[in-house]
Structures are given as C-alpha cells and as structure tokens.
Task: structure prediction
Amino acid sequence: MSTFLEFLVKLASHLGIKISVEELKKNVKDEAEMVAHVLDEINKYFYQQHKNLDKKYISEFHRYWEKEHEHILNPQIDKEACIKVAQVLEIIYRNNIIKVQKETLDLKPEEIANVRFFTAIQDFNIDINAKGNPFEFYKSHPECFDAKRIVENESLITNLLSYLDATTQGDKRKKWAKESAKLLVMEYNGSAYNLLEKHDSDPVKIREKLGASVGYGFSKKKVDMFLRDMVDLGVWEYKNNFDQIDVMSDVNTMRIALRTGILKFRIPLLASYLDVYCFQYELVDKYTSMAWRKVWDEWGKLPNNHRPPTPASIDYFIYQMGKTVCNKTARKCYPMKKVDKKWLIRHKIMDRLMINDGYCIFNNICQLERKILHPPKSISQKQRTGWDTGITDEGGGLGISS
Result:
C-alpha cells in the first residue's frame, strides 16, 4: 500500500506539512485500517449526501465545487498566445477563406435550410455525415425534412434518426425534432428558410428564438453552427450582428485552445468523475469560445489582414485541425503526411499548411508540456448513467453505473 502512503505524503506537502513515507509508516500501527478510514472520509465528502445537505447536491463536494470551481481552475486567456495563433491563421487565410464545404447537390436554398435545421438539432455526440450525405438522403426522403409532415407522422423522425445513426437517447431526439417542427409550422410557415426574414436577417435574434426552449434541441453551440452553415453554404446573408457568432466549442476546438496556450488553467483539467454536474466542462466551453474570439480580435489588428467577418468563420478550420491533425494522445505531433489530408486538399491549402517541417501549423506555438493536455468530458446530469442516478448516502455503495 506504499503508493497510497505516497499519495498522502503529496497531499500533506500541499498543506505545508513535510513528512516522509517512512515517518508515516512509523506513526501508523495498521496501514490497512488507516487507509480504509481515509477512503471512507474521501467517499463521504465527494460522493455522499447527508441530512444537513440541500437535496439538490449529491455531496458536500458538489456544493463546494459549484461555488469555487472557477476560482480553483483560474481560467486565463493569454493575449500573446492569441496573437501568435492569429499570425498563423493570417498565413492560411491570406489567399483562401476556408468555409464549410458540403455537397448540397442541386438543392434549392430553402431545401438546404431545412436539411441543416433538422440535422443540426441532432448533432450531439454523433457525426451527421458518418453514413453519407444528408443532402443526398433528402433527395430520396424529402418527407423526413418536411415540418408539417413530421408533426403528423413521428415515424419520419425515426427514419431520419436511423439514417444519422442517432438512435442513442432516441426519446429526447424525437422530442427535439417534433417540437422544432411544430415551431416551424406555427411561426415560420413550415420552413426553416423563413427564420431569416422573420427575424430581420439578424443571427442574434434567431439564436435567441431557437435557444429559448430546451424542447427544440438547440443549444447555443448548435444554433451557432446552423447560423454559420447558412452563410457558408450560400443560403442566407445577414444584415447585422454576424460578428456575434462564436467559434463552436467542442473537444477539438478545446484541444487546440489548450495546447496552443490561448486558454490556460491553473492545473491540467480534472477527469469527469470529479467534475460533478459538469461545472468544469461548462467553464471550459465558455472560455474556449472567448479565447477564439480574442484570437479573432487580435487578428483584426494585424496590418493588411484577411480576417473573416466573424469568429464563427474560422470554426470549421479549427475543428478540422483538431479532428484531423492534432493528435489526441501522442506527446509528439504527427507529421501531416501521416494524417487524413482529404479536407486539406479539397480546400487547396496544402502548400500553406505544410510549414514547420511538415508538422501541424501550430507546432511552433504549442509548448512541449502543453501538447499532452486534453479537453474535458462531461457526464450527463440526469440520463441513465448520469450524476443523479449515482446518488448515495451514509449507507455507502451505489454510484454511477454503465
């Protein structure tokens, strides 16, 4: 059990108490007995309710973490790192504004809007393009994107979810599709295309409307993704507030933010088991978007820059770099030649990307100790394996299960 004693010695050092494992052993008559009681106290504080605790908390730690997590993690946006990243992006965007490129075939703008509307709702821990092109699916199953028919026939939702391979948490996903279809029927004459005119060509107003109810399935992230794609795919033009659409935070944009150092924390992020109710995750999510906006702001200060009109305009590129190039586990970045380059070739930017001796464009920015950093994960609050299902008390046992 010496590793546990070493753990206790490290904890003591953070409290300013100097003690060695040997000294600790001398003061402990029964090591197993001591370890059992220490684990009992850890378990009580982190994972047990007690009678004096508000029932909205699963443990005393949960209450403490809610209040103190931001102060403990101490998020910081590093201006100098943001400038360096902006300078690299200027090289990439100087001759080519990189946009979302999807094969929309010969669909009309209204058809494209409806396809992206109903697929954006479901873009939650899935790849909507994994099984094929949703626009191609529309050509053979247009009824699955018809709001009026969806309201009348729920099986159409099932067909779409099956195609997208989005059957996990199916009840929730069906509700999202049906409620959002009802919204389109009641307020937008059954078409997502009409959102633009109804809200004065203002993306902020559209975001506020779609995000007003969790029943529609549109988080801010999903709405921003939808709003960005409507521009990149040539469906809409906004009159104002386009610059208010942020880079959509996900594990890929988070990973690059952490490794380039534009976003820094006091310590490497905690594993999700300790992030009770995802306070850390929500913090990183918020600050990631803020950090990329800061990059965009600093980019605008570069002379003769080619900065796109909104932070959201760089989301697709950052996302693809995180997914395709930025290695998830290796301490050394992969050379470009070892990764999937299809999207790079499609955008005709390989020559500009092949800098830094053929490694990732951010290779000279990411410091060695930062290249090992990982983005956070979340545990669902109320689902089958969520925190609420793991509540226990002084009786012990129970907890999160698969």
